[in-house]
Specification:
- By secondary structure, the chain is an all-alpha fold.
- Helix content is about 70%, strand content about 0%.
- α6 runs antiparallel to α7, α7 packs across α9 and α11 packs parallel to α13.
- The N and C termini lie far apart (about 60 Å).
- The model has no long low-confidence stretch (mean pLDDT about 95).
- InterPro entries: ARM-type_fold, DNA_alkylation.
């Protein structure tokens, strides 16, 4: 069953579908999802217009609205759900993590997972200890849950729990999955902007996948090159 707020938003997106863009957007996402063909700048403009006219959704209705949008086949509907969640992130608590887990496990790809990990899960854990969920996700057989746990500290900077970051990485260091190797490198690269020496020592000490190592060293190598 849909939600009136979500239905109005879906109608707006449908009215602005663009057949010329659709095929290229679907191809870019390896034809895993169908699209209306609305590019990001246009979609953002439509979201601003919609929110101006309809207001932000009530926090208590957000789960129903998000689930209603997530069930729609077009990927832009899931992006719209992400935008609504992102604008309400400060109200999210660990009680919302079962909903977040649903989103991670449904229609999973990097385009939704990375925003969920760095913005929503990261924000929730920072203010409302989410240890139980993070440990469950890092031990999961689902690599999107693993990736979320590895990336949740992406924006923490000096607040990064280094021991947790390195432990989570080592738990999946042997993974052959591209999205895990990439996540490991990305997490290390971001943390190297705060503590390059710790990251350099970790990379030198551990036998990381070449992709993870290459990504993790990008910022450090730029620093060293700048120093001459």
């Amino acid at each position: 069953m849909g939600h009136e707020y979500a239905d109005r938003l879906v109608s707006l997106l449908k009215e602005n579908q663009n057949e010329e863009n659709r095929e290229a957007m679907e191809k870019y996402m390896r034809n895993q999802f169908v699209f209306f063909g609305i590019k990001t700048p246009e979609r953002n403009a439509l979201m601003r217009e919609f929110l101006k006219e309809n207001g932000k959704p009530p926090v208590e209705e957000l789960p129903a609205i998000v689930r209603s949008l997530w069930r729609e086949p077009q990927r832009e509907c899931q992006y719209a759900a992400m935008t609504l969640l992102d604008k309400r992130t400060r109200y999210l608590t660990k009680d919302d993590l079962p909903l977040i887990e649903e989103l991670i496990l449904t229609g999973s790809w990097w385009d939704t997972i990375d925003l969920i990990a760095s913005n929503m899960v990261g924000s929730i854990h920072e203010k409302d200890e989410a240890e139980e969920h993070l440990e469950k996700w890092i031990h999961s057989d689902n690599f999107w849950l693993n990736r979320t746990a590895i990336l949740h500290q992406l924006k923490y900077k000096e607040k990064t729990d280094e021991s947790r970051l390195f432990r989570y990485i080592l738990m999946h260091n042997d993974s052959k999955e591209f999205f895990i190797q990439k996540a490991i490198g990305w997490a290390l690269r971001e943390y190297s902007k705060t503590n390059p020496e710790a990251v350099r020592q970790f990379i030198d000490r551990e036998n990381l996948a070449p992709l993870s190592k290459r990504e993790g060293l990008k910022h450090i190598n730029r620093l060293e090159k700048a120093k001459g």
